[in-house]
Amino acid sequence: MTQQHTKTDQAPAAPSFRTAKFGIGAVVRHRIYPFRGIVFDVDPVFDNTEEWWLAIPEEVRPRKDQPFYHLLAENAETEYVAYVSEQNLLPDTSGEALRHTGIGEMFVRDDAGTYRVRDRAPN
C-alpha cells in the first residue's frame, strides 16, 4: 500500500520587498503636504500600528506594501519626526539646508550640501 502525500504544510511565501527609492541622508519633500525632511531610517514595508494607519483619511491612505521612511521633518512652523510612505515622497532639489535640531546628532553636511551619517565614536 502506498501513501499519498499532499503538500499542505508549505511555508508562507516570503513578502516581496521593493528597493527603497531614498537612502539614509536623502532630503525629501511630501508630494501633498508642505513639509520636507531627511531620511534617518527605512522600513521595507509598513511597520506602524493599525490604529495609526486607519487614522489616515481613506482617500489618501497609502498602501502598506511599499517602503516607509522615518524623517526628521520640518514645515514653516515646527520640527518633528514623520513616518511617510514612498508614494508620498519626492526628492527635494532646493539645495536649502534643513534646520531640524536633531540633524546635528545624526548627520554632517559636507561642502556639496550632502548629508552623511555622522561617525559615532564608541563610549
Structure description:
The chain is mostly beta strands and 123 residues long. It has one domain. The protein contains 2 helices and 7 strands; from the N terminus they run E-E-H-E-E-E-H-E-E. The strands form 2 sheets. Strands 4-3-2-1-5 form a 5-stranded antiparallel beta sheet, with no helix packed on it. Strand 1 (27-30) and strand 2 (36-43) form a beta hairpin. The longest helix has 5 residues, at 50-54. It starts with 26 loop residues before the first strand and ends in a 6-residue tail after the last strand.
Helix content: under 10%
| Helix/strand order, N-terminal first | EEHEEEHEE
Radius of gyration: 20 Å
Strand order of the largest sheet: 4-3-2-1-5
Strand segment count? 7
Mean pLDDT: 88
Tell me the major beta sheet.
5 strands, antiparallel
Number of helices: 2
Domain module count? 1
Low-confidence stretches: none
Head-to-tail CA distance between termini: 68 Å
Category from helices, strands and their pairing: mainly beta
Strand content: 25-35%
Protein name: Heat shock protein HspQ
Keywords: Stress response
GO molecular function, one term: DNA binding
Pfam families: YccV-like (PF08755)
